[in-house]
Amino acid sequence: MKRFFLSFCFILLLSVSNGQSIRELRDKKSDTEKQIQYTNSLLEETKKNEKASLSRLKLLKSQIENRNALIAGINSEIELVDRSISNNTEIISMLQEDLDQLKNEYAAMIRFAQKNKNSFDVLIYLFSADNVNQAYKRWLYLRQYTHYRRTQADMINLVSVDLDENVAKLLAKKQSKTDLLNTKLNENKLLDGEKNKQAAVIQSLQKQQQDLNKKIKEQQRIQDELNRQIQKMLEEEARKTADKSGFGLTPEQKLVSADFEKNKGRIPWPVERGVITEHFGIHAHAVLKQIQVRSNGIDISTAAGAKARAVFAGEVSRVFAISGSNMAVIIRHGDFLSVYSNLSEVSVKAGQKVSLKQEIGTIYTDVSDGNTTIMKFQIWKENQKLDPEDWISLY
Q1: Per residue in 217-273, pLDDT tens?
Q2: Checking CA distances to 189, which of 55, 146, 309, 323 falls within 20 to 30 Å?
Q3: Domain co-membership, 248 together with 378
Q4: Residue 29 lies in a domain
């Protein structure tokens, strides 16, 4: 009985832990698949322009990253299924041992009962006691023995059912592994196709180095202009207060700032849906590897007509146009700033209070660059540039 109880606890522990891990992997896999589908829809838009574009290349790069993440997730799930198959095999072995032991014990009891089935033998066993107390104990023993024999029969049925269920689970897990391996094979084929498309776009863009260099300089000019506007706003805010190092915050603004900081990693996206196609920091150019690109924020590719939205409650500090580019909005959240640029239209004005996810404008769609719609987004804490991917919710 004790051995069966330990086996039962072991089975329960394994099934719960494995179930949770696989469920988490499948949830993440589902999110990645949705992101891949959405990126595919954006890539379809860029196909309308036959000319190879840097935006298309960045979308393909993001798609390849997502595909690799999906394959890595499938590999992790296969490992868990393998572990689960191993555990199930061990469980079946334990249950089979338990069942054999229970059957042997039950068979011994039946043989003993057959030898002593005569009621006369039972009476002799009782009356051969030395005293009444001993006879009573022998009577109790016979009752307990009869009850144990019935319990043993129930235990055999219970273990048999459990064994059959685990054999069925084992077969299902083996089928699940086969399905996962087939899915992985298909995803690898899709990945190879995407890498071939990426290579073709790179080859085409490498013939346009002069145009790419112009674009890099123009993007740098726009970013420098955006930085100047942010710095100008910070200086104006500092002049309004005695504290020249940053903002002089009201009690309400301090609460907003604290709430913003507490929500690090959970702040919503500045668009309803999108794909990150440019990351924060310094990294090699997508085509011209000898050139380093500096990004103060992230680029989010989204659908044409998409709206920019406030990532947190705050106050609009500045709305301005960048020469040769589009509109930008800066929203203040206490010590923090969120910056939204490349907007074709703006629906808010300086000094206006905005709420979480409130629409603040329409993102510009560049028809000449493969119908791409790119939201440029930054987060600052006073003069410090922050990586938005550390702050927004990634899933």
Answers
A1: 888 888 888 888 888 887 777 666 554 444 567 777 788 888 999 999 999 999 999
A2: 55
A3: yes
A4: yes
In 171-223, at which residue ranges do the beta strands (DSSP E only) sit?
none
User: Total domain count for the chain?
Assistant: 2
pLDDT digits 0-9 by tens, 295-333? 899 999 999 999 999 999 999 999 999 877 789 999 999
Q: What are phi and psi of 347, to 5 degrees?
A: -115, 15
* pLDDT tier, 5 (very low <50, low <70, confident <90, very high otherwise): very low
Mean pLDDT of the chain: 80
The domain that holds 291 is classified in CATH as: 2.70.70.10
Distance CA 351, CA 331 (A): 9
Question: Is 250 inside a domain boundary?
Answer: yes
- Backbone φ and ψ for 29, nearest 5 degrees, come out as -60, -40
Tell which of 204, 238, 272 closes a domain: 204
- The verdict on residue 337 lying in a domain is yes
From 204, 239, 261, give the residue that closes a domain. Answer: 204
Residue 133 tokens read as: 């107390």
Element (H, E) at 47: none
In this structure, which long-range contacts are made by residues 388-393, counting pairs with CB atoms below 8 Å and at least 24 apart in sequence? Answer: 388/280, 388/297, 388/298, 389/276, 389/279, 389/280, 389/298, 390/264, 390/265, 391/263, 391/264, 391/265, 391/267, 392/265, 392/267, 392/268, 392/269, 392/270, 392/311, 393/265, 393/266, 393/267, 393/268, 393/269
Is residue 200 located within the same domain as residue 211?
A: no
Residue 63 is predicted with a pLDDT of 93
| Dihedral pair phi/psi, residue 18, rounded to 5° | -65, -40
- Residues 152 and 22 reside in one and the same domain: yes
Contact between 268 and 333 under an 8 Å Cβ cutoff? The reply is: no
Q: What are phi and psi of 363, to 5 degrees?
A: -80, 140
